[in-house]
Amino acid sequence: MPINSYRLSLAASLLVAIVQCIGVPTAQAKRASKDSGSTTTVVIDAGHGGYDRGGIPGQRVSEKDMTLDVAQRLKSVLTANGYRVVMTRDSDVFVPLGTRVAIANSYPNAIFVSIHFNSAKRSGAGGIETYFYSRDSLPLASAIHYYVAGGAPSSNRNVRRRGYFVLRRTSVPAVLVECGFLTNPTEAALAQTASYRQKLAEEIAAGVRGRSTVASPLSTTRVATGESIPLQPYIDQTRVAKSERRKSKRSHKKSARKKKSSSKSSGSEAKTSSKNQEG
Ligand SMILES: [Zn+2]
What is the Å distance from ligand 1's center to 12 Cα? Predict the structure, then answer.
C-alpha cells in the first residue's frame, strides 16, 4: 500500500520535471540524447565476492552470489538496450572498494550501480532501500528505487542518503540498491528464484533508462527532494542489529552509547563506523 502512494507521488514529481523540461528544449534535448544508450557507460558493481560473502555471519543465502547473478542479468538487459556496460567483477572474486571506485571514475560519462542485498538479525526485517550520496546521484537513485520497490512485493524502505565508500568516492552518479533482505525468509526465497532476480535486473534497468526524466538540472523538484532526504543516521534496524553484533566483541553498554552519539554524525563519519559494510 505505501508503495502505491509512493508511486503516485513519484509519478507526480516526474510529471513536474517533464513539464519543466518542455520550456527549455535545447539543454534538455541534448541531455536526453546523451542519455539514450550508446554513449552512457553503466558500471555495474556486484557487491562483495571472493572471501567476502556479504551479509551477516551464519547467513544461509550468500549475498555475493545473489549480487553477481543480478549484476550479470542487468548487464544483459542494458547491453540489449544499447548501453556500454563495465562490470567491477564478473566472477566470484574479491575486488577492493577502492578498485571498484577507480573503475567507475575512469569513465567520465559513466553511472555506477552497486547491487546488494540486505541482512538483519531480526528475520522479520525486510524491504527495498536505495542509497545515494551526491546530489547528482539522486535522480538515478529515485528512478531505480521507483522501479525496484514498485516491482517488488517487499516493503518500501525508501531512498536514503548515506556516505558509503563507493558512493562517496565516485565522481560519477552512483547508487547502491539493496534488493531485499536475505535474512527474511520470504525475500530470501524470492531472491533464490531466477525469475525474481531477472525481474530485479529489469527493474534496475528501467531505472537506468528512466533516470534522465528526473535529471533536469533546472528542476527545483530535484533540489527540494535532495534536501528532504537527510543523511541517514546510524539507526535503522539492520545497522542496529549489526552494531549490536560488533560491539559484543568488545564491552557491552559502553559502545552502545558510542553508537548512539555517532548516529548524529555526518555521512562520512557514519561510514567510518560501518566501514566494512557496503550493505
Ligand atoms: Zn552487501
Answer: 32
